[in-house]
Amino acid sequence: KAGVTQTPRYLIKTRGQQVTLSCSPISGHRSVSWYQQTPGQGLQFLFEYFSETQRNKGNFPGRFSGRQFSNSRSEMNVSTLELGDSALYLCASSPDGSNYGYTFGSGTRLTVV
Amino acid sequence: AQTVTQSQPEMSVQEAETVTLSCTYDTSENNYYLFWYKQPPSRQMILVIRQEAYKQQNATENRFSVNFQKAAKSFSLKISDSQLGDTAMYFCALGEYGNKLVFGAGTILRVKS
Fold it and tell me: CB of B66 within 8 A of CB of B72?
């Protein structure tokens, strides 16, 4: 059974640009969550999608957005990148988001220069 | 607001010995879940063990067990017979209904041969 797949693994962008990260959940999982991991702030919840609907959102500015497709694949977008957006972005999936235990991907390392 | 505190930034243990990682949390909910995740240098977060708050019995997974003290809001992880492959960052996480996890700052565990 394939795990959670995140692409790309690494990304370097310039301030002001926008970026899109992709996450393919485990087959059959309908809930996808996104987390930002930085040395200073640790792991912070961005948002969670279930059946193409955003069910929960963390405390991030509107520059951070996401969506989920009918096949449960999810993308997150960050517009007008800032240096502080440099982080490891982790995606996690679960069958229904009921806190049974999320399975995480290996993340996308975003560097903003 | 939910908070998770891991007071040990780093710990070391000799191979084959036992080590305990500490975690305290705060929540106003009565029903919630607690998790320990492991993040090796590969970056992928791996679920180690899960505890449901309404279960009094402490969870156990092979060499990993927890000491869950609900009244004290404490959730420690014991690793028995430590192995070199246990070297990683360990995160304690709180999950309430609402599909998001709140993580502690993490504890770096180094297993020495």
Answer: no
CB contact under 8 A, A42 and B96: no
Sheet holding A19-24, edge to edge: A5-7, A19-24, A74-78, A64-68
**CA–CA distances in Å: residue A81 to residues A68, A75, A111:** 22, 16, 10
Residues of chain B in contact with residue A88, where contact means CB-CB under 8 angstroms, are 43
SS3 B85: helix
Average pLDDT by stretches of 10, chain A with 113 residues: 91 98 95 95 94 93 97 97 98 81 92 98
CA distance B10 to A102: 25
CB nearest A56 (choices: B99, B103, B105): B99
**Closest Cβ–Cβ partner in A42, A56, A90 for B100:** A56
Do A43 and B44 count as a contact with CB atoms less than 8 A apart? no
Burial class (CB in 10 A: 0-12, 13-18, 19+), A61: exposed
